[in-house]
């Protein structure tokens, strides 16, 4: 076997390299070099594999997370009355899942209304774009999309924040048909405005489904001021019929001007990445609020001196989260939120002192006199953007 | 939709607030006093709209 040891491989006047005699090629973006490294996809759960909150989530008049890392967005209390499900059938080759949106009641957006699906990205994870410097890079968003009934022009808006919190946006249009089509959308480099380097929502992609007239703008070819969501001029109203369905999967964002093949990561890798933003004690497929002790956090001590008691439990998360999370505890015996099972009795929970790794949980009310000390509870922790 | 927000006092030192107790869409949660938390941010917006955080008894 021979070994190739060179500093540069440079195609002659073309933008692809042909590998061997098979005809397989590697695309090279202009000035971007070979961009085929692992971990190039800055989107988490782009193949829609992870659904810790459940496989069917209803949208409404405020933002709510659906499949992990993908939120249903509602602007100006627009009733984004859809059901988002993890779709398992008729997906693009190589994909087991997609995110499906189905309209539950028709809505007409006005003024600054909007309904969308979005993913926010921490600035920590996009500094390689080098925005705000002379070496700023373009980046490419790719995804597979199709629709039932409501085909036509849709748009995606990318919003970024700089160190001062000022927002900038770009809007791009794409056409959706009844067949899966991979969209490849290039966002321009920005040598002027940096992207904030923080754990906040510093870069966001909004896939627009409906938008009121106040948020409509022509597609952009450069970054424009303003951190609010924008939709393109030809944006359809997906919410105009209960027959409408929208499907998306294989979402990838990468440095450069070429959409490389989707980077498939293992299920375990995706789940671990998602846990920076959301975790739960329940078994993966068990719905939040289910009455079960399987997997719950528990203290149970017998043969104590008979007396009242308060238990303080330092609850550890599976891994460090993005920020101190919102914690919801559920009584393991009845499933009620804000409650723990205290020796078999539902009792108001006391939860506080969250850090990225832990929180403190106790029985908020003093127990009856007993020789047993016990609390049982399930929990979820939310540090989403 | 936010239904109510109440200060959560430290069990051991009731002079200190340690979290918000948030009731949203019928679910009760504990929100840390961390500006990076999205529910903390939502509570600030809710207050800016004229709503009031209740003081724990």
Description:
The complex is a heterodimer of chains A (385) and B (57). With 385 residues, chain A is an all-beta fold. Helix content of chain A is 2%, strand content 39%. Chain A has one helix at residues 267-274, and strands at residues 16-19, 24-27, 56-58, 64-65, 71-75, 82-87, 98-103, 114-122, 139-148, 152-161, 167-176, 181-187, 201-211, 216-217, 224-225, 231-232, 245-255, 278-280, 297-301, 312-316, 326-331, 339-342, 345-352, 358-363, 373-382. In chain A, the strands form 5 sheets. In chain A, strands 18, 19, 20, 21, 22, 23, 24 and 25 form an 8-stranded antiparallel sheet that branches. The longest helix of chain A has 8 residues, at 267-274. The model of chain B has no long low-confidence stretch (mean pLDDT 95). Classes of the chains: A mainly beta (385), B alpha+beta (57). Chain A binds chain B through residues 61-62, 199-200, 289, 310, 312, 322-329, 337-339, 350-354, 359, 362, 364, 382-385, and chain B through 1, 8, 10-11, 18-19, 21-23, 26-32, 34, 36-39.
Helix content of chain A: under 10%
CA-based shape of chain A: globular
Relative helix content of chain B: 10-25%
Oligomer: heterodimer
Give the overall pLDDT of chain A as a whole number: 94
Q: Over the alpha carbons, how many angstroms does the gyration radius of chain A reach?
A: 24 Å
Which structural category do the helix and sheet elements of chain A fall into? mainly beta
Following the backbone from N to C, one meets helices and strands of chain A in this order, namely EEEEEEEEEEEEEEEEEHEEEEEEEE
- Ends distance of chain A: 50 Å
Radius of gyration of chain B: 11 Å
Range of strand content of chain A: 35-45%
Strand content of chain B: 35-45%
Biggest protein-protein contact in the assembly: A-B, 30 and 21 residues
Sheet with the most strands of chain B? 3 strands, antiparallel
Averaged pLDDT of chain B = 95
Question: Structural class, from helix and strand content of chain B?
Answer: alpha+beta
């Amino acid at each position: 076997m021979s070994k190739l040891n060179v500093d540069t491989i440079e195609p002659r006047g073309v933008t692809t390299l042909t590998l061997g005699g098979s005809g397989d090629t590697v695309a090279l973006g202009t000035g971007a070099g070979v961009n085929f490294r692992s971990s190039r996809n800055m989107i988490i759960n782009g193949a829609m594999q992870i659904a810790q909150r459940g496989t069917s989530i209803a949208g409404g008049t405020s933002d709510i997370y659906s499949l992990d890392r993908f939120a249903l967005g509602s602007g100006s209390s627009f009733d984004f009355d859809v059901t988002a499900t993890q779709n398992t059938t008729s997906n693009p080759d190589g994909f087991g899942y997609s995110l499906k949106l189905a309209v539950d009641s028709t809505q007409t957006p006005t003024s600054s209304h909007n309904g969308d699906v979005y993913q926010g990205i921490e600035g920590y994870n996009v500094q390689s774009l080098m925005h705000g410097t002379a070496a700023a890079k373009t980046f490419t968003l790719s995804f597979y999309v199709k629709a039932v009934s409501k085909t036509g022009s849709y748009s995606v808006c990318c919003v970024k924040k700089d160190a001062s919190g000022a927002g900038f946006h770009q809007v791009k249009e794409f056409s959706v048909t009844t067949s899966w089509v991979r969209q490849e959308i290039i966002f321009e480099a920005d040598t002027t405005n940096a992207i904030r380097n923080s754990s906040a929502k510093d870069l966001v992609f909004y896939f627009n489904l409906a938008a009121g007239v106040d948020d409509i703008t022509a597609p952009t070819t450069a970054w424009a001021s303003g951190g609010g969501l924008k939709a393109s001029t030809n944006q359809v109203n997906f919410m105009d019929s209960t027959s409408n369905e929208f499907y998306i999967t294989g979402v990838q964002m990468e440095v450069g001007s070429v959409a490389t093949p989707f980077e498939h990561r293992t299920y375990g890798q995706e789940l671990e990445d998602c846990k920076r933003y959301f975790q739960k004690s329940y078994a993966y497929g068990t719905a939040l609020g289910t009455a079960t002790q399987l997997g719950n956090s528990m203290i149970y001590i017998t043969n104590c001196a008979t007396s009242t008691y308060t238990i303080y439990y330092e609850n550890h998360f599976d891994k460090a989260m993005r920020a101190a999370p919102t914690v919801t505890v559920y009584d393991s015996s009845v499933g009620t939120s804000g409650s723990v099972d205290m020796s078999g009795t539902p009792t108001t929970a006391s939860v506080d002192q969250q850090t990225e790794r832990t929180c403190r949980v106790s029985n908020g009310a003093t127990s009856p006199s007993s020789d047993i000390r016990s609390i049982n509870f399930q929990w979820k922790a939310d540090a989403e953007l | 939709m936010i239904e109510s927000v109440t200060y959560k006092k430290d069990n051991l030192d009731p002079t200190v607030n340690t979290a918000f107790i948030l009731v949203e869409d019928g679910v009760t949660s504990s929100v840390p006093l961390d500006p990076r938390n999205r529910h903390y941010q939502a509570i600030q917006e809710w207050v800016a709209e004229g709503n009031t955080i209740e003081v724990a008894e």
